[in-house]
Automatic annotation (TrEMBL):
<dbReference type="InterPro" id="IPR045851">
    <property type="entry name" value="AMP-bd_C_sf"/>
</dbReference>
<dbReference type="InterPro" id="IPR010071">
    <property type="entry name" value="AA_adenyl_dom"/>
</dbReference>
<feature type="transmembrane region" description="Helical">
    <location>
        <begin position="608"/>
        <end position="628"/>
    </location>
</feature>
<dbReference type="InterPro" id="IPR042099">
    <property type="entry name" value="ANL_N_sf"/>
</dbReference>
<feature type="transmembrane region" description="Helical">
    <location>
        <begin position="724"/>
        <end position="744"/>
    </location>
</feature>
<dbReference type="Pfam" id="PF00501">
    <property type="entry name" value="AMP-binding"/>
</dbReference>
<feature type="transmembrane region" description="Helical">
    <location>
        <begin position="794"/>
        <end position="810"/>
    </location>
</feature>
<keyword id="KW-0812">Transmembrane</keyword>
<keyword id="KW-0472">Membrane</keyword>
<protein>
    <submittedName>
        <fullName>Nonribosomal peptide synthetase 12</fullName>
    </submittedName>
</protein>
<keyword id="KW-1133">Transmembrane helix</keyword>
<dbReference type="InterPro" id="IPR000873">
    <property type="entry name" value="AMP-dep_synth/lig_dom"/>
</dbReference>
<dbReference type="InterPro" id="IPR020845">
    <property type="entry name" value="AMP-binding_CS"/>
</dbReference>
<feature type="domain" description="AMP-dependent synthetase/ligase">
    <location>
        <begin position="38"/>
        <end position="373"/>
    </location>
</feature>
<dbReference type="InterPro" id="IPR052979">
    <property type="entry name" value="Adenylate-forming_domain"/>
</dbReference>
<feature type="transmembrane region" description="Helical">
    <location>
        <begin position="756"/>
        <end position="774"/>
    </location>
</feature>
<feature type="transmembrane region" description="Helical">
    <location>
        <begin position="683"/>
        <end position="704"/>
    </location>
</feature>
Length: 1019
């Protein structure tokens, strides 16, 4: 094969290695179709356990019969070879029955996890795949209300009698070229693309070593991956096609770990595996990771205990197409091609590069799938005929750069496309280059991501690099500004005149390697350090090489083999690396986007709350000026203005009004521009209107009192009784305002509650007395009191505000409560009295309704009626509930929306909670409406809040960061939040915490251009 015309530019030895390294072993696949392999084991070992979910065990014979029943039913609905069936289920035995029943019917399945998949992806997958049937569970019925496809419920169609006589296998006409499943993957475009995978693709990987990972009868395989991902097909189909036992993990972390401890084979992503210690899972024999780069420390750690495979391959080449059996201490690579597959490393002209040179990796052979569903242009772009096989087969452009190691394994070098991730943020490299070129004096620039570092290249060589950085920073966010630069007089060119980025990449690597050699030769720590010009390179000498993992936000540490000693500080850092937040203290704060004066004016002094307050107050000032100019200010007119302000102030605190306003403003679709959504989301600052109207009303009341007194003294219309009542109201309003002052309210909360309630009620009664008295004083001759009141708009305002105050009390009730004591610091109350509140709402509770009320966030549970609240020890009342949990408690009004109602407005979010702040966050987390990262800091988390709540949160967000402050000390919350923001790239941040931390985090984010939201305490 050395004489192939496409290899003529290679040396004879490289031509030989091109085939030796690039072609996997040629092996006969024992089965054509997935279900043929399964049926072989069902007949050979019918009594062996095929499927296990804790105490539930299903044999191969029973599973085969169930699948035959379902296949027969589907055939009756028109499902056959070439059909597609959407499988909207969850991780239960019915998932496996559904998969096998669909493929036995001849169709391909489209796996979608009903608990995880977004509405957008679900509806797109159904529209795009045009399924003959949507196979689902009754619990997901509501998610399919708008579909026009035929919906069949597994709950209804699975036989209760699995006698083989009732479950005849339908006629089998599927071949290896027929589709077996469609997996939707977004790639880098964000639009889900359906990858069409055939039986032959799957059997080639899973029926042969090493892709079968040693699966065989008697071996136990964990099923832990999201069922919508192709790694789940490796677990499920791999076990079924090799006669192994598939063990389904549960919903809690405890159940997850229990399954991992019981199995022989585990398939995972590196991020999921890294937090676990090999010593905790002595039964594991084989572990395979894929889906993202694997840190060497992880590979070395697990490789010392199990058969560890580091694998690679996009969905388009059937799960993985390269595998490396890793030996601790060896260079970590992705291995070579699996059997009957090929990998070619080519240049931009589609010619093979010399062995060891970087190039674009193309995949050929039996792994190459059919293409993208309904995307012929995209398929033609990425799938082309394989010129090296020259047998009509196709090869696929993986979009990944790589090079061959001299031992015949592949070293990945990152993505070739210009859209990359830097510190968790998606960055367009062309945009970075354009930003550099905005600097005067730059002739041409480009940018490359090399080993997770952003490099800038520019001409001429005399360029001032710091000026180029400053210019780029004016255009791009901090993370999209290169941290390292190379300048030169002229860029290298390809044969067709384009910038040769391959050469630039190698230049950067060579420069870095030379610098590392310089670092290795540094003098002892007590000697002066050499000075390295920051204009060219920014490298900090360190014994620890740190690589950032975008998926989990973890930092892993590999210690170079040439390092003989590690000082105490390095050992400490290494020790901390087991936690996913490790190293965050060393992060530098990102630059703020405005000067200190503008920042403080915008985000502190003139917050939106205070701006709303000011608007109301300024309107009242304008009204005052108008009245003074027109001299139209008798007591009747001033009294009306008082009523109008009090009306607005009270209405802004009325439950129904709050819920309506929140529903309108937070109902804005997430497709709207972020600039609009980030403003609308601050609807929770309407307290500024309440406070503005309240304070304005008080000053108008003072003016009214003065005018009424003047009129009474001058024997005008205002009577003595009106003035007397007015002075009492004034005194009560003054008392309400004094105790409502934030600092005093916080210090004397119980006193505030009692005075606010007592003075508010009595003031309301006196307002009616005053209003009627004033109306009588100014009643026109010839009119009755009733006629005058009906014509007065202020009369109707007083009625409305009175009803708004009374209305919550009309819904006062004493209800049953089930108390779950979580610890001596917290209790969870469970309610089910016919109210299931929406996520992001709160209720008020009391055991003495005339004395005090306390607000708590509701935690509705998915698919359950009622709700719960978490009460943590924070004062006498909460301590009483924890020490003596009640069986009945008072509730009032309706659940009212709070700040977290804004979460679904955004496409992604970092959600932060400290202590019992997890209560308001929990229902938002459980809803799983948007992608989010969760950060929860609290002391003794599990001991304080219990396993149930913690496990529920981890089930909903497996990569949630739970930081135990008792164990790790108080964190720098701002740095920790900004670390998550860098890694996750959310649209916004929301925090539920105490006042100082909330204000600190919100300001830190907002001043850096990150929308952030948190409760306010001004009103």
């Amino acid at each position: 094969m050395t004489g192939h015309p496409l290899l003529s530019q290679l040396s004879e030895i490289d031509q030989h290695r091109f085939w030796e390294y690039g072609r996997g072993p040629r092996t006969v696949v024992p089965f054509e179709c997935v279900h043929h392999a399964f049926e072989h084991h069902a007949q050979a070992n019918p009594h062996l356990t095929a499927l296990e979910e804790f105490d539930t065990k299903i044999s191969y014979r029973e599973l085969d019969n169930r699948a035959n029943c379902l296949a027969t039913h589907l055939r009756g609905l028109g499902v056959d070879v070439g059909s597609r069936v959407c499988l909207l289920v969850e991780r239960t035995p019915r998932l496996v029955v559904g998969i096998l029943g669909i493929v036995k019917a001849g169709a391909s399945y489209v796996p979608l996890d009903g608990n995880v998949v977004s509405d957008g992806t679900l509806h797109h997958a159904i529209r795009d795949s045009t399924p003959t049937v949507v196979l689902t569970l009754r619990k997901f019925q509501h998610r399919l209300a708008d579909t026009s496809s035929k919906v069949v419920y597994l709950d209804d169609v699975l036989c209760s009698d699995y006698d083989p006589g009732h479950c005849i296998k339908p006629q089998d006409s599927a071949t290896k070229s027929d589709s077996v499943y469609i997996v939707y993957t977004s790639g880098t475009t964000g639009t889900p693309k359906g990858v069409d995978v055939t039986h032959g693709n799957v059997t080639n990987l899973l029926c042969l070593a090493p892709g079968n990972l040693g699966m065989k009868p008697g071996m136990r395989v964990a099923q832990i991956m999201n069922i919508s991902f192709d790694l789940a097909a490796w677990e499920i189909l791999g076990a079924m096609m090799n006669g192994a036992t598939l063990c389904l993990r549960g919903k809690t972390s405890k159940e997850w770990r229990a399954v991992m401890r019981s199995v022989d084979i585990l398939i995972s992503t590196p991020s999921m595996l890294t937090p676990h210690k090999p010593a905790d899972y002595p039964n594991l024999k084989t572990v395979a990771v894929a889906g993202e780069p694997c840190p060497k420390a992880t590979a070395d750690s697990w490789g010392a205990h199990v058969n560890f495979y580091n694998c690679c391959g996009p969905t388009e080449v059937t799960i993985v197409n390269t595998m490396q059996h890793h030996t601790p201490g060896d260079t970590i690579t992705i291995g070579g091609p699996t059997p009957n597959n090929s990998v070619y490393v080519l240049d931009e002209n589609m010619s093979p590069v010399p062995i060891g040179e970087p190039g674009l990796m193309w995949a050929g052979g039996a792994c190459v799938t059919k293409g993208y569903l309904n995307l012929p242009d995209k398929t033609a772009e990425r799938y082309i005929p394989d010129p090296f096989a020259n047998d009509g087969s196709m090869m696929f452009n993986t979009g990944d750069l790589g090079r061959w190691h001299m031992n015949g394994t592949l070293i990945p070098l990152g993505r070739i496309d210009n859209q990359v991730k830097v510190k968790g943020f998606r960055v367009e490299l062309d945009g970075v280059a354009a930003a550099i070129e905005s600097c005067p004096g730059v002739q041409v620039a480009t940018a490359l991501l090399i080993d997770e570092e952003l490099w800038g290249f520019a001409t001429p060589s005399s360029l001032d690099v710091e000026s180029a950085k400053a210019a780029a920073l004016k255009v791009q966010p901090y993370y999209a500004v290169p941290t390292r630069f190379l300048t030169m007089d002229e860029f290298p060119k390809t044969a067709n005149g384009k910038t040769d980025k391959r050469v630039l990449r190698q230049m950067a690597i060579d420069t870095r390697d030379r610098e590392q050699v310089s670092v290795a030769k540094e003098p002892a720590l007590n000697e002066p350090n050499p000075i390295i010009p920051s204009a060219t390179l920014q490298i900090t000498p360190s014994l620890l090489h740190r690589t950032s993992d975008n998926s989990l936000g973890s930092t892993t540490t590999a210690v170079g083999s040439d390092v003989k000693q590690i000082d105490s500080s390095a050992s400490s850092a290494l020790e901390k690396e087991q936690y996913i937040w490790s190293g965050y203290e060393d992060d530098e704060y990102p630059e703020k986007i405005h000067g200190p004066i503008i920042r403080n004016l915008r985000h502190r002094i003139f917050s939106l709350y205070r701006r709303l307050f000011s608007v109301v107050f300024i309107i009242n000032i304008a009204l005052l000026i108008w009245i003074l100019v027109t001299k139209d200010y008798d007591a009747n007119r001033l009294g009306g203005i008082v009523v109008a302000n009090v009306f607005i102030g009270i209405l802004m605190r009325q439950e129904a009004v709050i819920n309506i306003l929140f529903a309108i403003f937070t109902g804005i679709p997430s497709s709207w521009p972020l600039a609009i959504r980030r403003v609308a989301a601050r609807i929770y600052t309407i307290g500024g209107i309440h406070s503005g109207a309240g304070v304005s009303g008080f000053f108008w009341l003072v003016a009214f009192t003065a005018q009424a007194t003047k009129e009474m003294m001058n024997r005008g219309k205002t009577s003595v009784r009106t003035v007397a009542v007015t002075y009492v109201i004034l005194a009560e309003f003054l008392g309400i305002l004094i105790f409502a002052y934030p600092a005093l309210r916080k210090k004397l909360h119980d006193t505030f509650e009692m005075t606010h309630r007592f003075l508010g009620w009595t003031a309301l009664a006196l307002v009616w007395v005053q209003f009627i008295s004033l109306t009588i004083d100014y009643m026109p001759e010839g009119q009755t009191l009733g006629q005058t009141l009906v014509k007065s708009p202020y009369f109707w305002l007083v009625i409305i505000l009175t009803v708004s105050i009374i209305w919550p009390w009309l819904r006062l009730r004493k209800v049953d409560v089930r108390s779950e004591v979580l610890s001596k610091h917290a209790v969870r109350f469970w309610f089910d009295y016919g109210v299931t509140p929406p996520a992001g709402s709160s209720v008020r509770l009391s055991d003495a309704p005339l004395k005090e009320w306390h607000g708590f966030a509701t935690i509705p549970m998915p698919n359950r009626s009622g709700y719960s609240v978490v009460v943590s020890r924070a004062g006498d009342w909460t301590s009483k509930q924890i020490d003596n949990p009640p069986t009945k408690i008072w509730v009032k009004g309706v659940p009212t929306y709070g700040v977290l109602k804004l979460v679904p407005m955004f496409r992604s979010m970092v959600l932060v909670a400290t202590g019992s702040g997890i209560g308001p966050c929990a229902p938002i987390i459980f809803e799983k409406k948007i992608p989010m990262r969760v950060l929860w800091t609290a002391p003794n988390v599990r001991q304080t809040f219990g396993d149930t709540l913690c496990d529920s949160i981890l089930e909903a967000v497996p990569d949630a960061v739970i930081y135990d402050t008792r164990k790790h000390g108080k964190p720098d919350l701002v740095k920790l939040v900004l670390k998550l923001v860098k890694e996750f790239n959310p649209e916004a941040v929301a925090i539920i915490s105490n006042q100082p931390l909330t204000e600190k985090v919100v300001y830190a984010c907002m001043s850096r251009g990150i929308p952030a939201f948190g409760a306010i305490w001004d009103s």
